Amino acid sequence: MTGTPSPSRSILRWLPLGLVALLGALLAAGVWLSRDPGREKLPSPLIGKPAPEFALPVLHEAGRLVSSDDLRGAPYLLNVWGSWCPECRVEHPVLTRFAETKRVRVIGYNWKDEHADALRWLEQFGNPYWLVLVDYDGRHAIDWGIYGAPETFLVDGDGIIRWKHVGAVTDAVIRDELVPLLDRIERAQ
Amino acid sequence: MRVILASVLALLLSLSSVAVPALAQSNPNPAPLEFRDPAEEQRFHDLVLELRCVMCQNQSLADSNAQIAVDLRREVLELIRQGKNDAEVKEFLVARYGEFVLYRPQVKSHTWLLWFGPALVLLAGAIGITIIVRRRSGNAPVPPDDSQEW
Questions:
Q1: Which of A141, A150, B35, B41 could potentially form a cystine with A146 if both were Cys, beta carbons 3.0 to 4.6 Å apart?
Q2: What is the C-alpha separation between A99 and A105, in angstroms, rounded?
Q3: What family is this protein classified in (chain B) (predicted)?
Q4: pLDDT tens digit string along A63-95?
Q5: Does the CB of A138 have a partner CB in chain B at under 8 Å?
Q6: Rounded CA separation B35/B30 (Å)
Q7: pTM value?
């Protein structure tokens, strides 16, 4: 070859190394993101939108229907659960502690369960709910964008979905996310 | 950026079959869907192949046995029967579960890199090669050394 390479040429020589480094950084970022335990949670497009309209039967009272309009006026926490759901067992004590503060109405959303199983489950572990709504065939759950249990929604007094948590609610989630949001909602009212 | 990285990651993950813990109740014997005619069945199958199972995430709605996938398949068939076209069925699911349900996301400002990224990389490669080739041919080529024996 002839003489010393031109400056632009030496940049070109480092180009493959740069590309490999870039690719490496991208993969590392991917690995780093994959360590997030919440990586499979889907953001709900319903946040900030009105909760879907429903009229669902009540678990403990045969024949009684409760509609979305009946719940207007004050915020409520809607917790999706099923007796078949192991994670619901995990969050149950946390939810019970929160319900005992009587901060908001905690409403159970019994999803794709058997009536007798649901009743037995609440009898065995305790019933933290102000009211339990039942969706046996899961039809209304699609309107809520529910895809697993447990999932928890906060709906404000105007019927707007303000928050959603996928997976078991923990004390930290209640302290860091739910309570500050409730404070904000109450101040605004 | 996070969306893009997540998309790349999803792509990588989809190449390997990763076992995902089943959070949803799995129903071993769902009642099979009944179709009115082969055309409806074909349309249904084409549609559920393009929709992602929201629970399993690396399977289409057609492949998944998760309870929610069973429910959503039923819902899709119901929407087809209501006379909704494919775009309307997709809109229905996107409104509830987000754009994640689409295997082919819509072209929007936050998905353009996903759509056009590969073409941009190809273009960059082509430009790079062109520059290198031009440069090589611009320099006086080394004359072949005929005396060399191979």
A1: A141
A2: 7
A3: Belongs to the CcmH/CycL/Ccl2/NrfF family.
A4: 999 999 999 999 999 999 999 999 999 999 999
A5: yes
A6: 15
A7: 0.73
